[in-house]
């Protein structure tokens, strides 16, 4: 666990209100007191399903999941406060990658309901998400539709008075432990992006099958799903038919900055570990920290961390200030923070030498944890595409 020596000066930047500073302090203390018993328990790393369930429950009991849904449905604020989401992800990631994952998926997995669900659907799902009683998942990616969301092939067809969902989704986080999935599928109002819709489906719906669990370098619940003629009530549609692509993008607009924030938390932890290591480790008769090359690397790490934080909290503040679209800001924040965190963590690993690649050493875990963040919720290359397109359209 972190000893909370990480830099807190960013909290005095003008992006924040007092309640953000209080949140950061309270969550940091809660995480230090609560998370070790869960994430360092015997077998916790091997049985990620049990660990994630325990984390969602603890986050719910602690009141932290209230930040993932709106106030009218058991949440904290009238609308999602992206700065709070970023502070929470940054803080949790600094303590534990799995705790960050458990929090993030409650928000992303229910985000489409928050943005577009009917009052009845919101009431049925969001209070349980906030309490940690229902686990959420976001089912967008398909084997042939990862970066290219407009080519989604799963279908959602009228069948009697209901809808019928068929198709395949893959790399679905929380797949296997989720209680419900927000699924994006083709309803066919138009070709491409304009022919998609979103629907919420319960995990125990007949025809929904966990086809395969997927093992990744930083283990967390992840699966391939099959939907074989699943019957879904029409009331479960999220937003208008044909508006599913825009709903997916609007959801990602909120959560992409928070992926950057998680990367920032990992990077801050790597710098903490590197500072401790280089002060304590003697080399050629002096602490490693005395070497100019070490100081150059530490300086680069600190610079990359501050620059990432500025982009993340700029995007979050812009969204919270009422901007209808923060696509460019969120893309920049996610792209920069995840790419730089990879470099920061790599430098920390190098400073640890052989220990840096040894199982059980924190920087080795961080090295594995960071990698997926440059891929999920829009790969770095997609973020560049988004930024360039916006520039060219002006
Ligand atoms: N908000 C609202 N509307 C948006 C929007 C946004 N952010 N972005 C685009 N739109 C609108 C456009 O204005 C356009 O509207 P009109 O048809 O009215 O003009 C429409 O949506 C289509 O937009 P594009 O032409 O830009 O669409 P595109 O097909 O060229 O794709 C893309 C754009 C940016 C590449 C997009 O497909 C994308 O973001 N891909 C990455 C997908 C991604 O992030 N996947 C992550 C999977 S989820 C995950 O990883 C979660 C997990 O497991 C943890």
UniProtKB/TrEMBL annotation:
InterPro entries, A to Z: Acyl-CoA_DH_CS, Acyl-CoA_Oxase/DH_mid-dom, Acyl-CoA_Oxase/DH_mid-dom_sf, AcylCo_DH-like_C, AcylCo_DH/oxidase_C, AcylCoA_DH/ox_N, AcylCoA_DH/ox_N_sf, AcylCoA_DH/oxidase_NM_dom_sf
Name of protein: Acyl-CoA dehydrogenase family protein
UniProt xrefs under SUPFAM superfamilies: Acyl-CoA dehydrogenase C-terminal domain-like, Acyl-CoA dehydrogenase NM domain-like
Keywords linked to the UniProt accession: FAD, Flavoprotein, Oxidoreductase
PANTHER family listed in its UniProt record: ACYL-COA DEHYDROGENASE (PTHR43884), BLR3437 PROTEIN (PTHR43884:SF22)
Organism: Kordiimonas lipolytica
Domain Acyl-CoA dehydrogenase/oxidase C-terminal span(s) in chain numbering: 242-392
Positions of the Acyl-CoA dehydrogenase/oxidase N-terminal domain: 18-133
Annotated EC: 1.-.-.-
